[in-house]
């Protein structure tokens, strides 16, 4: 695509150039599996973040008890 781009300051492509570009993408089933994987990953990250937040609060509580 960079070979078809024109201009120096502002690079642009013409519609006719874009029509000639072939895009490869996974089939719908594979896209759904990928989406499911990332959703599960997001949920796992959120779970660990909540766990970390609770541990930080626990640490704060222990430190307050130590110096009282």
From TrEMBL:
Keywords: DNA-binding, Restriction system. It comes from Fructobacillus pseudoficulneus. The keyword Transmembrane helix does not apply. One of its GO terms (molecular function) is DNA binding. InterPro entries: Restrct_endonuc_typeI_TRD (IPR000055), Restrct_endonuc_typeI_TRD_sf (IPR044946), Type-I_RS_S_subunit (IPR052021). It comes from the Bacteria. Pfam families: Methylase_S. Residues 5-56 form the Type I restriction modification DNA specificity domain. GO terms for biological process: DNA restriction-modification system. The lineage of its organism: Bacteria, Bacillati, Bacillota, Bacilli, Lactobacillales. Belongs to the type-I restriction system S methylase family. This is Type I R/M system specificity subunit.
């Amino acid at each position: 695509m960079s070979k078809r781009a024109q201009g120096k300051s502002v690079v642009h492509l013409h519609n006719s150039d874009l029509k000639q570009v072939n895009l490869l993408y996974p089939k719908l089933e594979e896209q759904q599996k990928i989406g499911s994987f990332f959703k599960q990953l997001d949920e796992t990250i959120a779970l660990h973040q909540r766990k970390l937040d609770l541990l930080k609060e626990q640490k704060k509580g222990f430190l307050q008890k130590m110096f009282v």
